[in-house]
Amino acid sequence: MSSNPKYVVAIDQGTTSTRAILFDRAGSPVAVGQREHEQIFPKAGWVEHDAAEIRDNTVAVLAEALDAAGATAADVAAVGITNQRETTVLWDRATGEPIANAIVWQDTRTQALVDKLAKDGGTDRFRATTGLPLATYFSATKIAWLLDSVDGARARAEAGELAFGTTDSWVLWNLTGGVGGGVHATDVTNASRTLLMDLATLAWKDDLLTAFGIPKALLPEIRSSSEIYGTSIAPLDGVPIAGILGDQQAATFGQAAFEAGGSKNTYGTGNFLIINTGSEIVQSTNGLITTVAYRLGDGEPRYALEGSIAVTGSLIQWLRDNLGIIEKAADVEQLALSVADTGGVAFVPAFSGLFAPYWRPDARGAILGLTRYATKAHIARAALESVALQSVDVIEAAASDLPAPITELRVDGGMVANDTLMQFQADLLGMPVVRPAVTETTALGAAYAAGLAVGFWKDLDELTGNWREDKRWEPQMSVEERAERLRVWRKAVEKTFGWVD
Fold first, then answer.
1. Which of 8, 418, 431, 459 gets the most CB atoms within 10 Å of its CB?
2. Are 154 and 122 in contact (CB under 8 A)?
3. H or E stretch including 263?
4. Does residue 475 have a cis bond before it (omega within 30 degrees)?
5. Tens of pLDDT along 118-141?
6. Nearest 5°: phi and psi at 408?
7. Element (DSSP H or E) covering residue 117
8. What is the b/e burial string over 371-396, where b = at least 16 CB atoms within 10 angstroms of the residue's CB?
9. Sign of torsion, CA 219 221 226 229?
């Protein structure tokens, strides 16, 4: 590494693609490499990724980003990793190969195990310890399913031959040498999404491991979000890997929401609202989950409330790939604007059940209110509006849990380029919606965590100074219209309940 490196690299291992982004000291993106990976749907409700493809893509996008910037490893101070959370990889420590496809966070195959565990204590059985309800969303039941479904996996796991990780751990292990001495670790934010970590102690909890039937030998070491875990191999030979944050926590960090009350809503494959609650563990009474926001080095952990929505951006992909009513995702805005309203159509995209604040695994997607008048444009508009309507549900739930009101919403993610959606969001919330100048906040947060660990950035105040507003949307809808829109939406949501017997 040179004496005066110019960049920090963030690896953003997301649900649909893996990206590497170089950031400069101002927190501005300089160069990007990106590759999509296959979405595998073997059965209804099953969602998988090829972890080997993700591993190979990670190396490729790092090289692409360096080439695009005309940079070498010597120009890079540190590497940060951010990742799709809960997605579960099991691999062979000796060969470095996954024992099966990764089970993705959206996958619902483990519902029977969730139901079985919930018979003793309900879905909140482990909430006081983990902050999470029992749900297929989190990693624990995915691990258990793989151990019981892949020949010999359980015995090999108990013998210490296998390793588990969310995709941050998988990327870290491979980039630090893999079978040649790879570091097997995760950070507190990802560990807090497994249903296996105690929020108060930040350690794996033995009675949770017993309940799910998971051998401790499988698990990575839990580390902070900002420290040097190890050094990279090619193409970033010798560069320290020094930051890990789950994608939504990373976006919150990239939005400089470091203190209690800071919040953001990310519009990606799904939507995710996070509100920082500081050093206090706040248990929601309104359907949100409690999670770790970040921990810097050996400092005090910071916690958050989160509202997770499974299907938002992926709904637009579904319109493109499954229905073929648009050619590319960006076309949805123009199609939606070709009609004045939804024509009475409501679209509830409960493809994986409903997450926060409902937690209804028995729900399934529905398009309601169809008449002969309805066109693909009305369906597209209803789909787009559902993204904002689902976010209202989680933001209102959060407001009920918090002592102080939320006065504006900071937003990020791919869909915030859609002006129509952002205006509709402001209208439905009755509060300003604010987009930052750098919308790559997920990758930026990982870069910040890594840069802090190696002194590339001095402190949180310097990072706060980097944040700049790009655009603000003020609410324009009448109170009466807003109330009526929400009434119809909630009626539609209730119609999706109980579809799965």
1. 8
2. no
3. strand 263-267
4. no
5. 999 999 999 999 999 999 999 999
6. -155, 160
7. helix 111-118
8. eeebeebbbbbbbbbbbbbbbbbbbe
9. negative
